[in-house]
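Duplicate of earlier report; Regucalcin input re-posted below.
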Amino acid sequence: MSVTVVSQRLSDLGEGPHWDISTQKLYYVDAFVGDVCRLDPATGVTEAVHLDGITTFVIPYRSDPSKLLVTLTRQVRQLDFETGESQVLAELPPEPSTARFNDGKCDANGRAWTGTLVPEEEEKGHLYRIDTGYTLTRVSDKITLSNGLAWSLDNRTLYYIDSEARKIYSFDYNLQNGSASNKQILINYNERKEFDNLGVPDGMTIDIEGKLWVAHFGGACVLRIDPETTSILRKIDMPCTNVTSCCFGGPHFDILYVTTAQKAGVTDQPQAGAVFAVTDLGTKGQPPNNFVE
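Output:
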């Protein structure tokens, strides 16, 4: 196994990686800077489109991968990466006005899921499904910091992270109608000693063996977790503290791309904010789910 920097750019808060099959490049966001980024791992060059808000996820459309579904603070937008033009598709309800979007992902049928947070408030965020016509349907409440999403290989389980609560949840999932029910706590980090000193769970993906890969903000690592036993199978140490998210990519989906963030005042982590490639893991992921209108 090796951990290698693949981006020249160091992001303030790199997040939401999504591998684009059509270009063999990696989309991600630099959240508080407001950039939607596209990295060519072969060259290390990152192109960026700057938007007027907090960018929180980016997912190509299945019908046209040059069009991107993005969330920007309180808005859902369609972005043309080549021209930089975007249009507003949906907005959060007016109350509370301080709520904003965070991480997001699509299920196997191309439905987008995303959640919210309310800064400085506990359990005021929600989990939403974006339905036909870009209507936001609230699915789960009492979320503090909505984050990583992943579906089991049979699409019968939705895994979901509330970072501030330090919990990974599971839902029974119906792929046909997009319903998520029977919310359960899969792992409560606060009750397990092996999760001490690992910061908070952040972004997440799943491999072809059905195991979860979870980035840990403040924990300097990515964990491979067995959702059946909830045990830690593997710990990938990273050279910076704030590890934000991960996804599989590359021609064979056997490279784990990991986004990170810088930390104010830390001078001994010169690679913080880079995108890393973790190789020779002995497993791989699946093609990502793009958005279907």
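Residues 27 and 38 are 4 Å apart (CA to CA).

Merging into the original ticket.
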